[in-house]
Amino acid sequence: MIDTSIEQLKNCLATVESFFINASTDAVQFKKSDSSWSKKEILGHLIDSGINNLQRFTEIQFESKPYSIRKYDQNELVLANDYQNAELLELIGFWLSINRRIIKIMTAQTEKTLQFEVKINGEYNNLSFLMNDYVVHMKHHINQIIN
What we know:
The chain is mainly alpha-helical. 67% of the residues lie in helices and 7% in strands. The protein has helices at 2-22, 25-29, 39-59, 74-80, 88-107, 111-114, 127-146, and strands spanning 67-68, 117-120, 123-126. The mean pLDDT is 97.
């Protein structure tokens, strides 16, 4: 199942890169309301998600198990990083780089490591679930970006 997620992640990278390269500045910066994210800010959120998950996927290799997932404040990170006013090409490059590294980490996993136990909000699961969920989460936000 992880192979399917890896292929889906690769497709996500191509889709998002193509979208942002061809999109107008107005389209990527438009916000439906003050409390909503623009497409650019959604990309920023995906950067934050990539940063946090790259750390998780890496640390679970050597930290004691079960590995406890630390939550992060997604809204505050988007504001603190001021993604709305960041250079779009920088954001695209950063997001692509993080996810290419994540693909390398995902590809390197074995049946044994994919079973490493993780604790998420008091519930137990494994690294395979965490990696697959990362891709599901990304696809959800990509749909928000391209539609």
